[in-house]
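Box 3.1. Reading complex inputs
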Amino acid sequence: MTHADFRALHLRGMSRDFGLLNALKGVDLTVERGEFIALLGPSGCGKSTALNCLAGLLPLTAGSIWLDDKRIDRLGPEDRGFGMVFQNYALFPHMNVRRNIGFGLRMQRRVKAEIDAKVEEAIRLVRLGAQAEKLPGQISGGQQQRVAIARAIVVEPPLVLMDEPLSNLDAKLRLEMRAEIRRIHNLLGCATIYVTHDQDEALSLADRIVVLRDGQVRQIGTPEVLYARPAHADVAEFMGYRNVLPARAMRDGGIVRVSVGQATFAGTLVDDVNDGPALAAIRPEDLTPRDGGPLAANVRTAEYRGRDFYGVAVTADGTELFFRAEHRVATGETLHLGADASRVLVYAA
Amino acid sequence: MSDRVPLSVRLSQRGLDGVTLLALPALLFVIALFVYPFLYGLVLSFKPKVGGLFANYVTFFSDPFLYSTIGKTLWLAVPVTLLNVALSVPVALRVRLMRRQRLLTTILVIPITLGTVLVAEGMLNYLGPRGWLNRFLLEFGLSSSPVRLIHNYWGVFLSLVITGFPFTFLLTLSYVTGIDPSLEQAGAMLGARARQRFNEILLPLLVPGLIVTFCLSFVQAFSVFPSAVLLGAPAGDTRVISVAAYTAAFEDYDYSMASAIAMIMAFVQVAIVVALLGAQKLVYRGPAGGGKG
């Protein structure tokens, strides 16, 4: 399948108010052809609003959307020609799998032979040959998901929008469908915007991740950059830096030393921090017991996760620390925790 | 015998337990007020004043003044119900999207609470030969003679629309709001225009509900009595079947004949409802949601 030609989709100051509530405040973004973008953020951050605005299901209150040099934000959803995979799949319950997938092509009044051929190809692509004549109510959630994807891509849209498509599936199926979505994207290469609140999904699927918070873009970057170097403390917290500790920063040549309570250790500057109050962000997996570890803390809970133990320890001043240990630790035991300087990110407070 | 599941447990697994007893008053009520009168009427209809077992039925179907009432009633009830159902769909589709749904629903439902007689009185005042409408038409030269809208077919028709529509509308609204809005959105995303979304997605999902709505509204319209007498021509065009039954019972004092007419009336209604519900089996009747139920 070849997908409708375009070079880039531009969002310029895309905004949406609901009365006094600004759900989306001036989002700027450029999506290149064939790119897989994840819109990541906590619930209520505006990511679904953004997707609905792109789809044309919600009008913008300010800003514009451009497909190359064609302005599309005033067009209705039926005139944009984007594909969409809904969170609840939104399959037509009275049509069998084949008719569901062929719906878009029928609306375009393609000739029957062409529709049949394309639907057949799409059914093969999502591996639903045996289910083609069944109604949506007669197939499993994972299969419904495949139908929803096939229905969205069979019309060869320039852009596919996905609204938390895996959130209704169980953990095993979610991993399976994640790989499936990536496989189909690699095969077809259609630009995709994928909304999720699950950082693992975003990291594993996307070429670039857009982190939204309170209706604003907080950071845009590759999964590697977002994982290793979140630009803000709140993004870090969302990306799995569960320890965000109030600290005092002291610059010392090229490095920075941070004090948390009584402990002082080296860190890496992310923001341009002056000496004084700061935030130190550390992933639980990087905070481990070690000789001379500066943070002394009592183990409160620890659970075995296969290779390692993950747990919560409390310092003398009551700060909770999420840590990793390679050996079994006992509740009440005092650990000396520390992290490598490169794994301690220091942000302005 | 100790390893046998006790009877009470086996019964409760089939949905029969102490709580089931709560259905008893309702059951007694139905028997006393519906089943017994029905059976009594059925038996009574076979005991005519004169003649054999089926004399009443023979009389009914050989007297055009009597058997024509079936056609006259259908000629009122079917078009009125079709019109009400057809009108209720677009209104319900619009109301579904409204914020002040409750206000509009209240306004539309008021005719139900007024009752047929009050509506009839209003229509007599507004639409009669000396009513506001005709005075307006004559005054402004829009009509040379008064337009006859009461004491004929159209009077009954209008009153059935006014009193029947809210009921039909409320039923339709509940079916319309039962359709997941994301289905229409999915249709739009796939390029379907409003008309196509209606024809391809909404209507097929609505049809089973519309059939039930039609049946319930039809039964109401079929048993029309007050407006046929007050607003119609009860000796002519709108001599509906309930008028015939009333005449037999309270003017001829022939309860046996009246029962026979009531039985025929019930049979016609049941026949039509059964036929429609049978047709319902031919269309999709599953859930109207888009995702995993």
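In summary: Chain A has a mean pLDDT of 91.
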